[in-house]
C-alpha cells in the first residue's frame, strides 16, 4: 500500500489542519514560508507513509530549511512585490497595454507560487535548496498536468484567503497535501506518439 497512514480519513483531515496551523506559525515571518512549506510537506509525507511524523521533527526540518529558505523567501517576496505593483499600475489604466501587463503579472504570480511550492516539496536537508529548485523545474517540465493541478491549488488558496482570511490556515494544509499527492497520482501511460 502506497500510503498506509491515510487509512483514517478523519485523522488525515485533522493532520492536514494541524499541518496548516504549524505552517502558519512557522510562516509568520513571511520570508520563512518556503521553510515552513518544506517542513510541512516532509511531515505529511511521513504521516501518509506511516513513518515517524512527530511535531518535533517538523520544527527540526523548519530549522534545517531556514538558512537557504530565507534566501528563497526573500527572492520570492521581492518578485511577488514587483508583480503586484505591475498589476496595480495596470489596473489604473494609465499604462499602454494595461490588460497585457495585468495578465502577465497574474501569470507571473501563479508561476512563482507553483515553482515555490514545488521546490519546497522537493527540499531535503542533504541536498538543500539549489537542488530542490532544479528538481522542481525538472518535475514541472516533465508533468505539465501536475503543474496545472498545482496552479489550481494556488488559486484555491488565493480564493479561500480572499473570501475569508482565516481560511488561509486550512488552505495551507490542503495545499501541502496536494503538493504531496499530485506527483504520486496514477497517470495513464502515453502512447507511442505521445497520445
Structure description:
- The protein has 195 residues and is mainly alpha-helical.
- The chain has one domain.
- It has helices at 9-26, 33-48, 55-92, 98-122, 128-142, 144-163, 168-184.
- α1 (9-26) crosses α7.
Give a quick summary of the entry.
76% of the residues lie in helices and 0% in strands. It has 195 residues and is an all-alpha fold.
Write the layout of secondary structure elements.
Layout: H1 9-26, H2 33-48, H3 55-92, H4 98-122, H5 128-142, H6 144-163, H7 168-184
Main attributes of the structure:
195 residues, mainly alpha, globular
Give the number of DSSP strands.
Answer: 0
Number of domains: 1
The largest β sheet comes out as: none
Low-confidence stretches: none
| Oligomer class | single chain
Please give the radius of gyration in angstroms.
Answer: 18 Å
Helix content: over 70%
Number of helices: 7
Overall mean confidence score, pLDDT: 89
State the end-to-end distance: 29 Å
Which structural class is indicated by helix and strand composition? mainly alpha
Q: SSE order in H/E notation?
A: HHHHHHH
Which overall shape is indicated by the principal axes computed on the Cα atoms?
A: globular
| Percentage of residues in DSSP E strands | under 5%
Amino acid at each position: 500500500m502506497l500510503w498506509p497512514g491515510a487509512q483514517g480519513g478523519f485523522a488525515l483531515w485533522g493532520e492536514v489542519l494541524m499541518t496548516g496551523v504549524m505552517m502558519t506559525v512557522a510562516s509568520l515571518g513571511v520570508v520563512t514560508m518556503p521553510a515552513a512549506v518544506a517542513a510541512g510537506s516532509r511531515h505529511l509525507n511521513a504521516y501518509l507513509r506511516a513513518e515517524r511524523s512527530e511535531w518535533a521533527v517538523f520544527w527540526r526540518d523548519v530549522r534545517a530549511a531556514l538558512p537557504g529558505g530565507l534566501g528563497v523567501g526573500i527572492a520570492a517576496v521581492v518578485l511577488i512585490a514587483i508583480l503586484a505593483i505591475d498589476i496595480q499600475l495596470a489596473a489604473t489604466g494609465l499604462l499602454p497595454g494595461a490588460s497585457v501587463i495585468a495578465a502577465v503579472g497574474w501569470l507571473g504570480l501563479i508561476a512563482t507560487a507553483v515553482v515555490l511550492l514545488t521546490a519546497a516539496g522537493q527540499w531535503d536537508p542533504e541536498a538543500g535548496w539549489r537542488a530542490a529548485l532544479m528538481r522542481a523545474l525538472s518535475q514541472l517540465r516533465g508533468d505539465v498536468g501536475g503543474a496545472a493541478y498545482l496552479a489550481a491549488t494556488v488559486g484555491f488558496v488565493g480564493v479561500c484567503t480572499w473570501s475569508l482570511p482565516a481560511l488561509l490556515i486550512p488552505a495551507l494544509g490542503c495545499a501541502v497535501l496536494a503538493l504531496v499527492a499530485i506527483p504520486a497520482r496514477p497517470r495513464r501511460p502515453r502512447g507511442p506518439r505521445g497520445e
